Amino acid sequence: MSLRIVVCVKYVPDATGDRHFAEDLTTDRDAVDGLLSELDEYAVEQALQISEDADDAEITVLTVGPEDAKDALRKALSMGADKAVHVEDDDLHGTDALGTSLVLAKAIEKAGYDLVVCGMASTDGVMGVLPALLAERLGVPQVTLLSEVSVADGKVTGRRDGDSASEQLEAALPAVVSVTDQSGEARYPSFKGIMAAKKKPVESWDLEDLELEADDLGLAGAWTAVDAVAERPARTAGTIVKDEGEGGKQLAEFLAGQKFI
Amino acid sequence: MAEVLVYVDHVDGAVRKPTLELLTLARRIGEPVAVHLGPGADTAAAVLAEHGAVKVLAADAPEFADYLVAPKVDALQAAYDAVAPAAVLVPSSAEGKEIAARLAVRVGSGIITDAVDVEAGDEGPVATQSVFAAAFTTKSRVTKGTPIITVKPNSAPVEAAPAAGTVEQLAVTVADSSKGTKVVSRTPRESSGRPELTEAAIVVSGGRGVGGAENFPIVEGLADSLGAAVGASRAAVDAGWYPHTNQVGQTGKSVSPQLYIAAGISGAIQHRAGMQTSKTIVAINKDAEAPIFELVDYGVVGDLFEVVPQLTEEVKSRKG
Ligand SMILES: Cc1cc2nc3c(=O)[nH]c(=O)nc-3n(C[C@H](O)[C@H](O)[C@H](O)COP(=O)(O)OP(=O)(O)OC[C@H]3O[C@@H](n4cnc5c(N)ncnc54)[C@H](O)[C@@H]3O)c2cc1C
Ligand SMILES: Cc1cc2nc3c(=O)[nH]c(=O)nc-3n(C[C@H](O)[C@H](O)[C@H](O)COP(=O)(O)OP(=O)(O)OC[C@H]3O[C@@H](n4cnc5c(N)ncnc54)[C@H](O)[C@@H]3O)c2cc1C
């Protein structure tokens, strides 16, 4: 039987651009270009490796996001995923983590899955909670923050490098996995991959397709509210000295003045 | 007064500093009730009481160590049901965030992660977040359910505020469905003997400019002279010069010390994301155009192999 892998990928504003908030205090998606969250490339890569090791596997990439989020799906398809699902609905604008996990869980169930693979965190919200939220909602094991992962005999195993220890984990499928940027460099899409991606199917689902009401979704339905946003004041220009042989001593003088020594 | 659950981060009863900071924040919005899972509750209770815990709910079960995350969620949920708190505060560690998230689904509450401050507000606790690589500060609230907020280290002062801190055993049943992810083996990390990176008052970090693992002792030497933790950029970690657990940045640790010293680090956005909230920032870099200099309170344009050892000597002699 085929191994059904769903990879959750997020479309995010480019972190090297000048990111801003819109008037309704949601992310201003017009301010900078969006792209496939770099940390989700690692998830796509691990899914590809797992599928290469399996007899028969199919990779669906899934995103919840606006129209442009198709770009993120195309990138993942050009890396080698088989098909894509785009959950898109005007009522989703401003959805928070609890809401996003609700939509993703419904879509994952509708797509059918044995394994869900996520990145360790998005590069915009950086909450790092979606994989745990999904495991809770789907009622399956969470095998998260893996720097090494493999799937065999209906089981997923992996290594989680924590602060105080490194743990070897094991769970039966179906399961939700998240992988870190230590899991292995993501491949670049080949020209062939980019051409092939254009022909791969991208399905669009809205809330009705998922049998979801907008009550818990969007800005109005969110479980959290952002009341205020302030740009961090620019740091006042610091003192910069050129080392002419006394740089270390001058720095010590500064540190002493600040009572660090 | 309303009770506020505080999830205790500890090592066999030795309470870690971020939890004591949470007790300070919890007192602003109610009476802190600490939840201690695993061994050492009696040792922990004394410290928790000294910092304001009116009560310590304790539970220990082998499942906490044998399976990943979910059994601890069962326990925190039991505490939640016992207390009906006004808010739940959890330290922003990787595990803390996952525990908090799953509890949020179970009790139907919103969650705010990585708060850098929490205050009382007219409509419940208000959390401050530092977002988009610390370029913006936001104020947010949980609007549905009981606020569940995870808080970053170094977000509040540790204050003494003696309270009863009576230990009560918490009855916990670990559901079979929470035993899905087995911890097959665990290899403890060797302690460097230096302060914990995220908690340290001073952090000294080295980057690609350090040039090799064999040169990192230069960075460690400065750190030790200042009683600091050692950090590294991803470039240094990826090159295998320093362990990943010491990486500072978006995919590493986020630090907010009183003093951050960057040696041989250019200051890429992903690195800045993990250190930009440091109170005082110092950089040593031979390239005057390095973006890190945009952030600094004090910068030395120079060769770190000259500047850092000289600084270390100077610190040692001044400290006598
Ligand atoms: C600066 C900022 C701060 C925020 N703070 C909060 C907050 O405190 N509380 C809150 O409830 N919401 C918050 N949000 C909203 C939240 O980021 C989104 O709802 C989001 O999609 C889920 O969180 P995350 O992006 O941080 O995901 P993470 O938990 O960091 O993402 C982990 C993984 O989940 C998957 N994933 C995440 N989002 C999607 C998606 N849309 N489609 C497919 N896969 C996905 C990816 O695999 C990703 O690697 C914040 C948003 C921003 C921009
Ligand atoms: C998704 C993603 C996540 C990432 N997460 C992180 C993260 O968590 N943390 C992180 O740090 N990076 C992260 N990065 C990488 C980041 O983009 C940079 O590549 C990295 O921070 C560069 O490290 P560096 O400053 O040490 O190296 P470089 O950018 O190469 O800079 C080295 C600096 O050392 C200086 N130098 C060289 N020799 C000397 C000398 N003898 N004396 C003084 N100065 C000298 C040079 O002038 C230069 O400025 C991430 C990237 C991505 C895409």
Task: Provide the fold topology.
The complex is a heterodimer of chains A (261) and B (320).
Chain A: E1 3-8, E2 11-13, E3 34-36, H1 38-53, E4 57-64, H2 70-79, E5 83-87, H3 97-111, E6 115-119, H4 130-138, E7 142-152, E8 155-161, E9 165-172, E10 175-179, H5 191-197, E11 202-205, H6 218-221, E12 224-231, E13 239-242, H7 247-257
Parallel strand pairs in A: 1-4, 1-6, 4-5, 5-11, 6-10, 7-10
Antiparallel strand pairs in A: 2-3, 7-8, 8-9
Chain B: E1 3-7, E2 10-11, E3 14-15, H1 17-29, E4 31-37, H2 41-50, E5 55-59, H3 63-66, H4 70-83, E6 87-91, H5 94-107, E7 111-119, E8 126-131, E9 136-142, E10 148-151, E11 166-169, E12 181-188, E13 202-206, H6 216-226, E14 229-232, H7 234-238, E15 259-263, H8 269-272, E16 280-285, E17 298-301, H9 304-319
Parallel strand pairs in B: 1-4, 1-6, 4-5, 5-11, 6-10, 7-10, 13-14, 13-15, 15-16, 16-17
Antiparallel strand pairs in B: 2-3, 7-8, 8-9
Helix pairs in contact in B: 4-5, 6-9
The structure holds flavin-adenine dinucleotide (FAD) (2 copies).
One flavin-adenine dinucleotide sits between chains A (8-10, 27, 37, 39-40, 43, 62-65, 95-98, 100, 104, 118-119, 121-122, 124-131, 224) and B (110-113, 131-132, 140).
Q: What would your notes on this structure say?
A:
The complex is a heterodimer of chains A (261) and B (320). Helices cover 28% and strands 30% of the residues of chain A. Chain A is α/β, with parallel strands linked by helices and 261 residues long. In chain A, strand 4 (57-64), helix 2 (70-79) and strand 5 (83-87) form a beta-alpha-beta unit. In chain A, helix 3 (97-111) packs across helix 4. The radius of gyration of chain A is 22 Å and the shape is globular. The mean pLDDT of chain A is 96. Chain B has nine helices and 17 strands. Chain B has helices at 17-29, 41-50, 63-66, 70-83, 94-107, 216-226, 234-238, 269-272, 304-319; strands at residues 3-7, 10-11, 14-15, 31-37, 55-59, 87-91, 111-119, 126-131, 136-142, 148-151, 166-169, 181-188, 202-206, 229-232, 259-263, 280-285, 298-301. Chain B has a nine-stranded mixed sheet with strand order 9-8-7-10-6-1-4-5-11, with helices on both faces. The longest helix of chain B is centred in the C-terminal third of the chain and has 16 residues, at 304-319. The N and C termini of chain B lie far apart (50 Å). Strand 12 of chain A pairs antiparallel with strand 9 of chain B, so a sheet runs across the interface. One flavin-adenine dinucleotide sits between chains B (207-209, 233-236, 247-252, 264-266, 268, 270-271, 274, 284-287, 290, 303-305) and A (38-39, 181).
